[in-house]
Amino acid sequence: MVTGIRLTSGKTSGSLTSSSMAVSNLNESREATQEEILQAQFALMRKRKRKGYVTMHTNMGDIGLELHCEIAPRTCTNFLGLAEAGKYDGSQFHRLIPSFMIQGGKGEPDGSLWGGAFVDEFDDRLKHDAEGILSMANAGPKTNKRQFFLTFGPASHLDRKHSVFGKIIDGIEVLREMKKVPTDKKDHPIHEIKIAKIDVLVNPAKEAEELEKTRLQKLILENEEKGKKRNEAALGRKQSFEKDQKLVEKPSKNSHLPKVGKYLPKHVKKI
């Protein structure tokens, strides 16, 4: 994560447009937050419109997934980051409902790429409308972490409740074989269904992060250069002021004589 980039507080512009803020001509600088840097990265992912691609290797076969990074950038960044870090390697599909879906991605700790839960990403272009849809498991609004599921068929009742972020583009027959695995009364597969490894083939999140890192580093250097020039200008003004002060304080030829006002009686000879 890039840090060190500084933003203005917005006090100046805010005071000019808000009736509730005191007028200010001071724009204090502050360090950009992680969320602000992520938002810039996500905006770039939307702009570039690049899909992500991974291969999920399971003990029942390989599944190729396409990820909608340009529509659900936060969710895809989370999944791709965890996959590249090997966080899904060796994990099991722990829940299976034959008429519904298969759920996996559980791990210890069960957090997201950033540790805590993150917000939902809903978009009407992405729906649970087919077999092989990849979506986030959650425990309610804004509780996404790392668990996901693959649908065995349309599940429109999940739209705008769970964040769709991908779909199967290869290996749908593997999903159909998983569907046949018997389960116990708690919907746990009786036979192990396991993710051996996830290979990340195309990662738009990482590409955007590198591009954004380059942009921010350039901005940091520009800010440092501007600061340097401001300091040099301030130093120049100080030196000029000190020089002027010395000229003002330099004693004149008649400085030893007593000083009198300009209003002297006419009979007094001016010195």
What is the compact description of this entry?
The chain is 32% helix and 18% strand. It has helices at 11-17, 34-48, 73-84, 172-179, 204-249, and strands spanning 6-8, 29-31, 52-58, 61-67, 95-97, 101-104, 133-136, 148-151, 164-170, 195-202. Helix 2 packs across helix 5.
Secondary-structure blueprint:
Elements: E1 6-8, H1 11-17, E2 29-31, H2 34-48, E3 52-58, E4 61-67, H3 73-84, E5 95-97, E6 101-104, E7 133-136, E8 148-151, E9 164-170, H4 172-179, E10 195-202, H5 204-249
Antiparallel strand pairs: 1-2, 3-4, 3-10, 4-9, 5-6, 6-8, 7-8, 7-9
Helix pairs in contact: 2-5
Number of β-strand runs = 10
- Per DSSP, the total helix count is 5
Share of β-strand residues:
15-25%
Ends apart, CA distance between termini: 76 Å
> What is the string of SSEs from the N terminus onward?
EHEHEEHEEEEEHEH
Overall average residue pLDDT: 86
- What would you report as the Rg, rounded to the nearest angstrom? 33 Å
Flag low-confidence runs.
none
Strands ordered across the widest β-sheet? 5-6-8-7-9-4-3-10
From the helix content, strand content and strand pairing, which structural class follows?
Answer: alpha+beta
Largest sheet: 8 strands, antiparallel
